[in-house]
Amino acid sequence: MESLSNKKKVLEVKPLNFMERAYLPAIVSGLATTMKHFFKKPVTISYPEEKREFSENFRGMHSLKRDENGKERCTACGLCALSCPAEAITMTAAERQPGEENLYREEKYAAVYEINMLRCIFCGLCEEACPKEAIYLDGDIVPADYLRKDFIYGKDKLVEAPLNQ
Amino acid sequence: MSTFYFIAFLSIFFSILVITAKNPVHSILYLILTFFTFTVHYILLNAQFLAVVNFIVYMGAILVLFLYTLMLINLNKESEPVKPFMVKIAGVFGGGILAVALASSLKLVATSNPVILKNPDLGLVKNLGKVLFNEFLLPFEVSSILLLSAMVGAVLLATKDPKTAS
Amino acid sequence: MGSTADILIKIGLILIIFVISLVMAMYSTYAERKVAAFFQDRIGPNRAGPWGLLQPLADGGKLFLKEEIIPTNATPFLFIVGPSLAILTACIGSAVIPWGQKMTIGSHVVDLQVTDINVGVLYIFGVVSLGVYGVMIGGWASNNKYSLLGAIRAASQNISYEISMGLSIIALLMLTGTLSLREIAEQQHSWHWNIIRQPLGFILFIVCAFAETNRTPFDLPECETELVGGYHTEYSSMKMGFYLFAEYINMFISSAVMATLYWGSYNYPGMDWMNNLLGPTWGPLFGFAVLFFKILVFIFFFMWVRWTIPRFRYDQLMDLGWKILIPLAIANIVLTGIGSTLLTHFGY
């Protein structure tokens, strides 16, 4: 068929000349190539000891934020759970009791907040959905574990450390 | 001497196993053992070169090829051809003739000298080479022609006839 | 010969060589992985011990503790005989290799060679040709089509390359005039290495050595892409380990043979001066170190080639063996004959 674009190249398969058929020169040049790599610096990053820097928009483990006074921002509105395409988030809301004002910012707070890290796809939609800027995926890679139940992270692992500690 | 009797017993034992083994591959493996005992016999006779050649050529090459062919053919019990009665008769007849020939040839042999070599180092490579290339030069070269003709014959058998191929 | 001390020394030597072969095999697995890693710009095993040096022990422990599986349809006896034969034939090859000059310890003269039989080269050759039985028997006894195909490939490959290997050795023997490895080693005193007189023979020999040890580019018997695992598909646990060990010991022995036959064994330029300096005990030991260094270089070369050249196709393998190597080997014999006759004629 005629080429319309004129970009068609006809490749010729030439018979090998003697040097190519002798095979040994090709082997020697191949050996030279591998030897060059032998002295190159390895590109490996030995992971747990050395860590590669994350990019700025990397999304890792979730953290539940506190405000400038160290109170939990989350009001258990459930928008994150609603927006989650993987159904990974669940929570139970509770009313703030008198005397707990220094712990929770609003009158309602999440008594239980769980994320199933095996379901989570780290899309960041919860981050976007949150009206209180309470959840961010700014953590590290979620570590490996042996049991499925250990991948359901509760508030103990998710909430940021208090300010004064 | 007792070593000789032990090894000789082993050779006969394994060669009986070769013909009685049901599985052809087992039979070949026994044949390998038989040849190994032959190698030991050669060493006992101080024929190191023959021993090693027997080791390389028979054990290392020919029997590998035997095993190779046997592994390629599917030797199930079902596919084993039933031999006609006449073939069995012919087999028995042939074997009988061989036995008679062997017996008569044994009768001709007078009590030979006990195996004492005149030159115990005859089996070493150097002496063997000298004997082969001086006294027995002609038979040695003739046998090489024999091998060559066998090779040519094998190549002829392997190549297809151009008339039938086309 | 005959005194108790001599016998004890001999037994000790055998044990030392045996242990060295096994340790070499163990650390070859480690070296293989490290070398592969370096060639691919990686680091390689580095978790077990410093720089991963305990990795072979960990691997060995793992192999020992794995479950032994003998397939239901396998022939149990032959299934066990296969790997045992493989490692046996791999180990007995080291018996005739001269590891060094005669060494004097106190009043004893120690011969650093287990036995000097006058057909040493042929013995090595015989042991190598016997090595294929381990693979064949194991592959057949597994009762698995992949194992069987691997075994068949191993057999035909070994037989094909044995011929050119033998022919290349014949050219060398025409020059040395002896089959004893000790004498061949002694002839290469100082810098008179056989590689100078037999360069083509050496290339042929090393190609055949690759094929005989089933190393890449000739590792078709265990070709993963086509045959799952080749002849050891059905093997597990230490029986599998034996096959792997046998491969590495074979590599070690064939490196030793190459160093002995072509690269001057324990000889090195300036060895007389060095022997005078070090005395009759440490001089030969230094020679042994030199031989060992050569062996290590060859093992490294085996690995270097493995991580450079891809596997041959089977018909290419056969073409190379029968149509290229054998004619070349015969030409080498003829050339060697003409060359040595001319040299003798003109009085060299």
From TrEMBL, chain A:
Its main location: membrane. It is found in: Cell membrane. Its cofactor is [4Fe-4S] cluster. PANTHER family: NADH DEHYDROGENASE [UBIQUINONE] IRON-SULFUR PROTEIN 8, MITOCHONDRIAL (PTHR10849:SF20), NADH DEHYDROGENASE UBIQUINONE IRON-SULFUR PROTEIN 8, MITOCHONDRIAL (PTHR10849). The gene is nuoI. One of its GO terms (molecular function) is 4 iron, 4 sulfur cluster binding. [4Fe-4S] cluster 2 binds at residues 84, 120, 123, 126. Binds 2 [4Fe-4S] clusters per subunit. It is an enzyme of class 7 (translocase). One of its GO terms (biological process) is aerobic respiration. NCBIfam families: NuoI. Belongs to the complex I 23 kDa subunit family. Keywords: 4Fe-4S, Cell membrane, Iron, Iron-sulfur, Membrane, Metal-binding, NAD, Quinone, Repeat, Translocase, Ubiquinone. Residues 65-94, 111-140 form the 4Fe-4S ferredoxin-type domain. Pfam families: Fer4_7. NDH-1 shuttles electrons from NADH, via FMN and iron-sulfur (Fe-S) centers, to quinones in the respiratory chain. The immediate electron acceptor for the enzyme in this species is believed to be ubiquinone. Couples the redox reaction to proton translocation (for every two electrons transferred, four hydrogen ions are translocated across the cytoplasmic membrane), and thus conserves the redox energy in a proton gradient. Its EC number is 7.1.1.-. One of its GO terms (cellular component) is plasma membrane. It is a peripheral membrane protein. NDH-1 is composed of 14 different subunits. Subunits NuoA, H, J, K, L, M, N constitute the membrane sector of the complex. It comes from Mucilaginibacter lappiensis. It catalyses: a quinone + NADH + 5 H(+)(in) = a quinol + NAD(+) + 4 H(+)(out). This is NADH-quinone oxidoreductase subunit I. The keyword Magnesium does not apply. [4Fe-4S] cluster 1 binds at residues 74, 77, 80, 130. The keyword Transmembrane does not apply.
TrEMBL record, chain B:
GO terms for cellular component: plasma membrane. Keywords: Cell membrane, Membrane, NAD, Quinone, Transmembrane, Transmembrane helix. InterPro entries: NADH_UbQ/plastoQ_OxRdtase_su6 (IPR001457), Nuo/plastoQ_OxRdtase_6_NuoJ (IPR042106). The chain crosses the membrane at residues 6-21, 28-45, 51-73, 85-106, 136-158. It is a multi-pass membrane protein. It holds the Pfam family Oxidored_q3. It is an enzyme of class 7 (translocase). GO terms for molecular function: NADH dehydrogenase (ubiquinone) activity; quinone binding. Its EC number is 7.1.1.-. The keyword Transmembrane helix applies. It is found in: Cell membrane. It catalyses: a quinone + NADH + 5 H(+)(in) = a quinol + NAD(+) + 4 H(+)(out). NDH-1 shuttles electrons from NADH, via FMN and iron-sulfur (Fe-S) centers, to quinones in the respiratory chain. Couples the redox reaction to proton translocation (for every two electrons transferred, four hydrogen ions are translocated across the cytoplasmic membrane), and thus conserves the redox energy in a proton gradient. Belongs to the complex I subunit 6 family. This is NADH-quinone oxidoreductase subunit J. It comes from Mucilaginibacter lappiensis. The lineage of its organism: Bacteria, Pseudomonadati, Bacteroidota, Sphingobacteriia, Sphingobacteriales.
UniProtKB/TrEMBL annotation, chain C:
It catalyses: a quinone + NADH + 5 H(+)(in) = a quinol + NAD(+) + 4 H(+)(out). It comes from the Bacteria. The keyword Aminoacyl-tRNA synthetase does not apply. GO terms for cellular component: plasma membrane. It is found in: Cell membrane; Membrane. It is a multi-pass membrane protein. One of its GO terms (biological process) is aerobic respiration. The chain crosses the membrane at residues 7-28, 77-100, 120-141, 161-179, 242-265, 285-305, 325-346. Its EC number is 7.1.1.-. InterPro entries: NADH_UbQ_OxRdtase_su1/FPO, NADH_UbQ_OxRdtase_su1_CS. Its main location: membrane. The keyword Zinc does not apply. PANTHER family: NADH DEHYDROGENASE SUBUNIT 1, NADH-UBIQUINONE OXIDOREDUCTASE CHAIN 1. NDH-1 shuttles electrons from NADH, via FMN and iron-sulfur (Fe-S) centers, to quinones in the respiratory chain. The immediate electron acceptor for the enzyme in this species is believed to be ubiquinone. Couples the redox reaction to proton translocation (for every two electrons transferred, four hydrogen ions are translocated across the cytoplasmic membrane), and thus conserves the redox energy in a proton gradient. This subunit may bind ubiquinone. NDH-1 is composed of 14 different subunits. Subunits NuoA, H, J, K, L, M, N constitute the membrane sector of the complex. NCBIfam families: PRK06076.1-2 (NF004741). Belongs to the complex I subunit 1 family. This is NADH-quinone oxidoreductase subunit H. It comes from Mucilaginibacter lappiensis. The gene is nuoH.
